[in-house]
Amino acid sequence: MDNERSIKVTERIFELQNFDHKKPILNYYVDYFFQVDSQFFTLFHNLIINEQQKGEIVEAMKEESLNFAKENILLLNHLESRVDELVRELESQINEMNLQDMTITYKEHVKDS
Questions:
Q1: Domain extents for the chain?
Q2: Closest alpha carbon to 94 in 21, 42, 16, 31
Q3: What is the sign, positive or negative, of the torsion defined by CA atoms of 32, 38, 44, 50?
Q4: Mean pLDDT, to the nearest integer, of 22-49?
Q5: Which residues lie closer than 8 Å to 46 by C-beta, 6 or more apart?
Q6: φ, ψ dihedrals at 99, nearest 5°
């Protein structure tokens, strides 16, 4: 007499992935954004402030540009602090996708007594 049995297992299809090598690339671009942002605000400052421009509109532009620069720095600092976390999340998602649930069905032969 044969009894059909099943077991469920989870198997890893591929090796665990490590994406630490992506951190320097991401950090490079965060640094690049810092540089571009700094260059832009230096240029803006040189055009508006160093040219001794005066008036309400110029003052409003100065104030808005300072607020904008502060917001950009906060966002870039936040992004810089999240690089490690983002890489870990990517690793986790990729490694989770590399798991496959399987059901193995087999017949167990039982001898009649």
A1: 16-98
A2: 16
A3: negative
A4: 89
A5: none
A6: -95, 140
Checking if the pLDDT of 1 tops 80, the result is: no
Q: Which residues of 14-35 are buried (b: 16+ CB within 10 A; e: fewer)?
A: eeeeebeeeeeebeeebeeebe
- The answer to whether the CB of 3 falls within 8 A of the CB of 108 is yes
The structure tokens 């989870």 sit at 10
Nearest to 83 by CA among 36, 37, 29: 29
pLDDT confidence bin for 58, thresholds 50/70/90: confident
How far apart CA 18 and CA 90 sit, in angstroms, is: 9
Average pLDDT (86-100) is 91
How many angstroms separate the CA atoms of 105 and 30, rounded? 52
Using the predicted structure, report yes or no on whether residue 51 has a pLDDT greater than 80. no
Count of alpha carbons within 13 angstroms of residue 75, beta-carbon side: 9
Q: Which of 85, 98, 97 is nearest to 23 (CA)?
A: 85
